[in-house]
Write a structure and sequence with these properties.
mainly alpha, 2 domains
Amino acid sequence: MSFADSASKLAGKFLRYSKDHNGMFLFGSAATCWFMASLAQTIGLITNKKIGKEEKKFLVPQEILDGTFNIATYAAVTLPLMGAAKMAAGKSFPSDKQVVEGAKTIAAIAGGVISSNIITPLLRNKSGVIVKKIMEEKNITPPPANIYDGKTFPNFKQRPMTMKSYINFTKNMPMSGSLKI
């Protein structure tokens, strides 16, 4: 059997499964996409010749940790939500499989929103503090940006703050539209 035949057969099974299990299809697709995106980002960081070794020592583990948090929090939040939605819909509509699958699908979407927009950023910030302490103990620190590009937080400790750098920094802040100097 050729690779194309195997892939076609697997795709057919996957599509038949997804027809009756929309919630699990959505869950599996989202988790797979997050894994592939994280893998692509990590490989991109590793192979980018414009990024120095010292920066890679910080950025690659950070990206791996970020991807792990995305997938783990999505699974930890979504699977229990889907189970609860299935149970609730099954009690209310025991003979309607479509309603149960619809409830699981809505739970998969809600789990994605909650995990990726609330829980993952909190975990990422907490873990960033821990990783930073570990790196400081090993005397590995992320190098500061050489030039302030107006998008990242300027490193005012190493360069004196000027009015121009402060104005450029505040122009890009979300709530600074009415700032007058």
